[in-house]
């Protein structure tokens, strides 16, 4: 049966603009594209330790069997959530099935009608989707532009004051809550905001700061705790979203915050309530991954590779091509879908697995090659891919 014409027309437009997405065929190229920053997804020690944990604890169950609110809340959840909360110096942690589920669940449930959400314009699609499902009013601020953010904060603080002054208080009246939303490492640019400035603004305007740390977990901090903890700002944040599919190499995510926030999410986050929980094996993998990142030597190797990559960009004079980054993500801006796809294809022919990021995933004119660095990349591989890019340019 054919799909409706309007759907086919949308597909045809993608083809015409050279922006049609297709599932890639796995290759044996040198990995500069995956989010497996520490190599945990392929780590045999993590795999074996997970299996051993399940055997030692006599956990021989393949699935969760239902929602966590019905039959799926096996004991391993509380063990793992307690470990995560302690690791991140948070009062509580709540595991979701994915980073997407965590963001959609949080933003669709927590901000209330007439609340204000101020989000960085480059926030991930999962954050934006959750905001669209919310009844709160939302406004984007220019990327990492604190003057633009402060202007919005001033505007809405003034509006709130006028509202209160112009109305008689009622027993149930409540000032709207303002949420500031950002990421500690942006997934397409690899750059990071000035977290101290954001904390100061949130305190100045009595706003709640929410930070997605998906691409910072396993990358920043002495033990891979993330950017907020590395700057000792964890107590200044209302909620942190930790996604495990990047630095920890497994599946799932956790929202960190107060015990009251956890209780609220259990009661109102629809992406948590109305889905089958993760299997015991998945939760055990999360626990073991956290235990390994806590004592991993891979983090230091990753940091050395990030420094080396930045040095090579500088030596070859192509640093201006890249978005400034100290993370594991480095994006070279090469405008035009056709041009960036052509260069990516040539790099792949040379054996380097580098992906082109096309519009509309990124704005038109901001198409880029996205290099992801890992602990297992050698300096020879990094030098070779940078020199290959240089020659192609």
UniProtKB/TrEMBL annotation:
The cofactor required is: pyridoxal 5'-phosphate
Keyword list (alphabetical) reads: Aminotransferase, Coiled coil, Pyridoxal phosphate, Transferase
Residues in Aminotransferase class I/classII large domain copies: 28-382
Q: Which Gene3D superfamilies match?
A: Aspartate Aminotransferase, domain 1, Type I PLP-dependent aspartate aminotransferase-like (Major domain)
Gene Ontology molecular function, alphabetical = transaminase activity
A Pfam family? Aminotran_1_2
| KW Transferase (keyword) present | yes
Q: Which residues form a coiled coil?
A: 292-319
Quote the InterPro entries the UniProt record gives: Aminotransferase_I/II_large, AON_synthase_class-II, PyrdxlP-dep_Trfase, PyrdxlP-dep_Trfase_major, PyrdxlP-dep_Trfase_small
**What family does the database annotate?**
Belongs to the class-II pyridoxal-phosphate-dependent aminotransferase family. BioF subfamily.
Descriptive protein name: Pyridoxal phosphate-dependent aminotransferase family protein
């Amino acid at each position: 049966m054919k799909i409706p014409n309007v759907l086919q027309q949308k597909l045809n437009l993608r083809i015409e603009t050279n922006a049609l997405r297709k599932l890639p065929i796995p290759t044996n190229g040198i990995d500069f594209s995956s989010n497996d920053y520490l190599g945990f997804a392929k780590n045999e020690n993590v795999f074996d330790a997970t299996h051993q944990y399940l055997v030692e604890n006599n956990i021989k169950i393949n699935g969760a069997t239902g929602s966590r609110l019905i039959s799926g809340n096996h004991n391993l959840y509380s063990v793992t959530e307690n470990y995560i909360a302690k690791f991140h110096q948070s009062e509580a942690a709540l595991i979701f099935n994915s980073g997407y589920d965590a963001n959609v669940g949080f933003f669709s449930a927590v901000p209330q009608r007439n609340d204000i959400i101020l989000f960085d314009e480059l926030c991930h699609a999962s954050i934006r989707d959750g905001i669209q499902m919310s009844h709160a009013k939302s406004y984007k601020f220019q990327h990492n532009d604190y003057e633009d953010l402060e202007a919005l904060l001033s505007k809405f603080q003034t509006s709130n004051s006028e509202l209160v002054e112009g109305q008689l208080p009622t027993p149930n009246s409540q000032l709207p809550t303002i949420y500031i939303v950002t990421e500690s490492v942006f997934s397409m640019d690899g750059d990071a905001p000035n977290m101290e400035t954001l904390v100061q603004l949130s305190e100045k305007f009595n706003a709640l700061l929410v930070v997605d740390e998906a691409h910072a977990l396993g990358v920043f901090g002495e033990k891979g705790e993330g950017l907020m903890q590395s700057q000792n700002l964890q107590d200044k944040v209302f909620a942190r979203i930790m996604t495990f599919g990047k630095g920890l190499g497994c599946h799932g995510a956790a929202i960190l915050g107060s015990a009251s926030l956890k209780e609220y999410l259990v009661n109102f986050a629809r992406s948590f309530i109305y889905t089958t929980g993760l299997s015991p094996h998945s939760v055990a993998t999360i626990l073991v991954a956290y235990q390994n990142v806590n004592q991993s030597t891979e983090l230091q190797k990753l940091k050395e590779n990030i420094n080396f990559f930045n040095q090579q960009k500088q030596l070859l004079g192509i640093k201006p091509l890249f978005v400034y980054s100290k993370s594991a993500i480095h994006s070279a801006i090469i405008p035009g879908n056709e041009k960036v796809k052509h260069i990516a294809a040539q790099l792949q022919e040379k054996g380097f697995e580098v992906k082109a990021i096309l519009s509309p995933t990124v704005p038109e004119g901001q198409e880029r090659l996205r290099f992801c660095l890992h602990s297992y990349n050698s300096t020879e591989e990094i030098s070779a891919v940078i020199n290959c890019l240089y020659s192609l340019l």
